[in-house]
């Protein structure tokens, strides 16, 4: 027997000690939210299904800003308090108990602005709606959650906006949007597990094109009127590239693919599950190939700790090189040669296998991460490399992964001892020797 104790205020990631929470596992988020672009007011309820992983006297959710009107646990009012981005809920739950939390809240969303090298992120109000990109920990700027990729859950979104505004979230639309009294409600469902940072509620004036890819995957593409000329190319490329990745990485993990081009000049794209978003520019094939590769690497297979971010960005960067090879625009070897020759000392001093919390999106995590995969391909040969990538995606579909697991699978698949190779490319603060092809 043991007394119930408080769930920890962080999920246990030493890089972001306040992110996520301990003591429970979120399994589903139901977000019923209304947003008014004119007043910039966001409000509604978040219903979270979870399971206790210890006897709990209290637990935390991550939520930044807003006024919380009420919290219930299993339908009964619960005491709560706020401190920084932590919403603490008093309760009395047994280990392994399934429970439902409902949080009613409203206010003006405040995006995160002090990010190391990503600019603003989170729920960003725009003149006609909102641009919502939450990596690494911006979900707290619009809904209460266990805001860390180690805790994935399914989602449904019931989003109400003024008539004429389109609300876009992850997954697929459940029926036609309904309009009453000048307000339109869009219901979206993401029935596959998703990390909180991939959730979106992008709203505004959009032109939309839907259909299916040549390979039969449903496609939803949307473009701000300022980018209307890119809608057809976004639609065509997204379908075609998703189909191609399914041949290289294995079956597409989600129910639909697509993308959103908004006129908010974020200067970046984010691989929001099922619908990458491109902030203020017309995406070219390379970046679409990158964001859609993330649907496998990052979205279906998610990191357990932020230090392993190269498992997302190294793979997506290498995918750009594979796409270029596929299109006859320069082989992966040529791309590798250019990257190796062009890499700065800063890249060789930053080991991508140990992402730094204050410099998470360093070029090394992308480029040297991609180079690590090419070095692996040269070491074990195409006959082992491509089956390894497919097996990696299949074995951990919808799950969480670590670098150690990837190294272990690479060694098992190839029958080779690969410590030296991964050490040189992922963990050493110096330039690895240029590898040569085995055949
Ligand atoms: Zn990326």
Automatic annotation (TrEMBL):
<dbReference type="GO" id="GO:0016285">
    <property type="term" value="F:alanyl aminopeptidase activity"/>
</dbReference>
<dbReference type="GO" id="GO:0008270">
    <property type="term" value="F:zinc ion binding"/>
</dbReference>
<feature type="domain" description="Peptidase M1 membrane alanine aminopeptidase">
    <location>
        <begin position="286"/>
        <end position="425"/>
    </location>
</feature>
<dbReference type="InterPro" id="IPR045357">
    <property type="entry name" value="Aminopeptidase_N-like_N"/>
</dbReference>
<dbReference type="InterPro" id="IPR050344">
    <property type="entry name" value="Peptidase_M1_aminopeptidases"/>
</dbReference>
<keyword id="KW-0482">Metalloprotease</keyword>
<comment type="similarity">
    <text>Belongs to the peptidase M1 family.</text>
</comment>
<dbReference type="GO" id="GO:0008237">
    <property type="term" value="F:metallopeptidase activity"/>
</dbReference>
<protein>
    <recommendedName>
        <fullName>Aminopeptidase N</fullName>
        <ecNumber>3.4.11.2</ecNumber>
    </recommendedName>
</protein>
<dbReference type="Pfam" id="PF01433">
    <property type="entry name" value="Peptidase_M1"/>
</dbReference>
<keyword id="KW-0862">Zinc</keyword>
<dbReference type="Pfam" id="PF17900">
    <property type="entry name" value="Peptidase_M1_N"/>
</dbReference>
<keyword id="KW-0378">Hydrolase</keyword>
<dbReference type="InterPro" id="IPR001930">
    <property type="entry name" value="Peptidase_M1"/>
</dbReference>
<dbReference type="InterPro" id="IPR014782">
    <property type="entry name" value="Peptidase_M1_dom"/>
</dbReference>
<keyword id="KW-0645">Protease</keyword>
<dbReference type="InterPro" id="IPR042097">
    <property type="entry name" value="Aminopeptidase_N-like_N_sf"/>
</dbReference>
<dbReference type="InterPro" id="IPR027268">
    <property type="entry name" value="Peptidase_M4/M1_CTD_sf"/>
</dbReference>
<feature type="domain" description="Aminopeptidase N-like N-terminal">
    <location>
        <begin position="27"/>
        <end position="198"/>
    </location>
</feature>
<dbReference type="GO" id="GO:0006508">
    <property type="term" value="P:proteolysis"/>
</dbReference>
<keyword id="KW-0479">Metal-binding</keyword>
């Amino acid at each position: 027997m043991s007394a119930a104790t408080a769930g920890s205020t962080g999920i246990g990631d030493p890089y972001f000690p306040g992110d996520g929470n301990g003591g429970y596992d979120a399994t589903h988020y139901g977000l019923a939210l209304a947003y008014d672009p004119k007043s910039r007011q966001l409000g509604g309820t978040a219903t979270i299904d979870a399971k206790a992983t210890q006897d709990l006297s209290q637990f935390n959710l991550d939520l930044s800003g807003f006024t919380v009107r009420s919290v219930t646990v299993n339908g009964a009012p619960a005491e709560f308090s706020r401190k920084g981005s932590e919403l603490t809920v008093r309760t009395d739950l047994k280990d392994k108990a399934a429970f439902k939390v409902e949080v009613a809240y409203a206010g003006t969303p405040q995006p995160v602005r002090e990010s190391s090298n990503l600019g603003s992120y989170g729920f960003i109000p725009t003149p006609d709606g909102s641009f919502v990109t939450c990596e690494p920990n911006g979900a707290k700027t619009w809904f209460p959650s266990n805001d860390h990729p180690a805790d994935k859950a399914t989602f449904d979104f019931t989003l109400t906006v003024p008539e004429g505004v389109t609300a876009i979230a992850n997954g697929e639309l459940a029926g036609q949007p309904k309009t009453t009294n000048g307000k339109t409600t869009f219901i979206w469902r993401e029935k596959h597990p998703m990390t909180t940072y991939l959730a979106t509620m992008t709203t505004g004036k959009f032109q939309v094109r839907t259909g299916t890819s040549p390979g039969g995957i449903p496609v939803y593409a949307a473009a701000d009127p300022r980018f209307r000329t890119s809608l057809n190319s976004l639609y065509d490329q997204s379908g075609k590239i998703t189909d191609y990745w399914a041949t290289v990485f294995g079956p597409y993990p989600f129910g639909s693919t697509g993308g959103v081009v908004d006129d908010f000049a974020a200067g970046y794209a984010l691989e929001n599950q099922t619908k990458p978003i491109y902030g203020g520019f017309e995406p070219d094939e390379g970046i679409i190939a990158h964001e859609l590769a993330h649907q496998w690497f990052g979205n279906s297979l998610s990191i357990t700790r932020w230090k392993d971010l190269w498992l997302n960005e190294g793979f997506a960067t290498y995918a750009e090189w594979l796409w270029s090879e596929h299109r006859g625009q320069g082989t992966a070897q040529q791309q590798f040669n250019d990257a190796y020759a062009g890499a700065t000392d800063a890249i060789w001093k930053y080991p991508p296998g140990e992402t730094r919390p204050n410099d998470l999106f360093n070029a090394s995590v992308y480029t040297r991460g991609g180079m690590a995969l090419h070095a692996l391909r040269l070491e074990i040969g195409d006959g082992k490399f491509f089956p390894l990538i497919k097996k990696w995606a299949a074995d951990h579909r919808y799950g969480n992964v670590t670098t150690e697991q990837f190294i272990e699978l690479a060694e098992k698949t190839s029958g080779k001892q690969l410590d030296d190779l991964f050490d040189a490319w992922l963990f050493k603060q110096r330039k690895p020797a240029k590898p040569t092809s085995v055949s």
